[in-house]
Amino acid sequence: MDDDRTNLTVFPGVYPPSEDTYLLLDAMQVGPDDVFLEVGSGAGLITLTAAKTAKTVVSIDISFDAVRNTKENLEKNGLYDHCQVIESNLLDALSTSFKFSLMVFNPPYLPQDDENTDFDRAFIGGPTGAELTLRFIRQTVAHLLPAGRILVVVSSLADVDIIQKTMTECGFVVEKVSESSMFFEKIQVLGGVLKEDHRETVL
User: Fold this and answer.
1) pLDDT tens-digit profile of 54-89?
2) Which DSSP string do the residues of 45-83 spell out, in sequence order?
3) How far is residue 46's CA from residue 59's CA, in Å, rounded to a whole number?
4) CA distance 83 to 74
5) How many CB atoms lie within 10 A of CB 22?
6) Are 182 and 154 in contact (CB under 8 A)?
7) Residue 169 has what pLDDT?
8) For residue 38, which of 107, 95, 97 has the smallest C-alpha distance?
9) What is the four-CA torsion angle of 136, 177, 110, 6, rounded to 10 degrees?
């Protein structure tokens, strides 16, 4: 998706659009009937791009600065009228009355290491790098419309097998949508389409 006409400001301390952001952006197919959710919006580039097409957009980030950043960019681009921006730890702040046709997440996906930095929240996804992603996947089922879709970014440095296995167990048909090599790892976008006969399960 082309973002050349998006006027984007990035606040200090907010995760800026990076190669993994653009990989997810290129994997998205947003239609005019979509009810769209982005988790982990950062500066809001993906949210803004979706807002140009989707019927309704909700954007979530755990960082108050990122929430402010995304909201300001939506307002600056004249896209805020059909959007909501919420501060939340994943989907914790949403009631199950919120239902979406497409949910996307570019999570912190690296395994924990011995070094602690100010950027750990943006990069570390848990001991194996997959824990935050697994929690997101399990939460999505209660918030998806029938045949709803998810897209999630994963790293070859994390436990990708358990992510794919969990998506399948939660009722998704899983596919690798795109892939890019970055330095010492491969970054993939995994897509899941919720089976219509799935049963909501709390794992």
Assistant:
1) 999 999 999 999 999 999 999 999 999 999 999 999
2) HHHHHHHTT-SEEEEEES-HHHHHHHHHHHHHTT-GGGE
3) 9
4) 8
5) 15
6) no
7) 96
8) 107
9) -80
Q: Which residues contact 184 (CB under 8 A, 6 or more apart)?
A: 157
| Pairing of β 144-155 and β 185-194 | antiparallel
Q: Any idea where the domains of the chain sit in the sequence? A: 19-194
Q: Report domain 19-194's class.
A: alpha beta
Please answer whether residues 173 and 148 qualify as being in contact, where contact means their C-beta atoms are separated by less than 8 angstroms: no
CA of residue 22 relative to chain centroid, distance: 12
Single-letter code of the amino acid located at 108 = P
Q: In angstroms, what is the C-alpha Rg of the chain?
A: 16
Burial of 196 (0-12, 13-18, 19+ CB in 10 A): exposed
The confidence score (pLDDT) of residue 2 equals 38
Using CA atoms, how far residue 3 sits from 11, 18, 145, in Å, is 18, 13, 27
Residue that the structure tokens 């939460």 belong to: 139
Q: Percentage of the chain surpassing pLDDT 90?
A: 70
On the 0-12 / 13-18 / 19+ scale of CB atoms within 10 A, 26 is middle
| Residue 45 · residue 21 · CB < 8 Å | yes
Residues whose CB falls within 8 Å of the CB of residue 134, separated by 6 or more in sequence, listed in order: 162, 163, 166
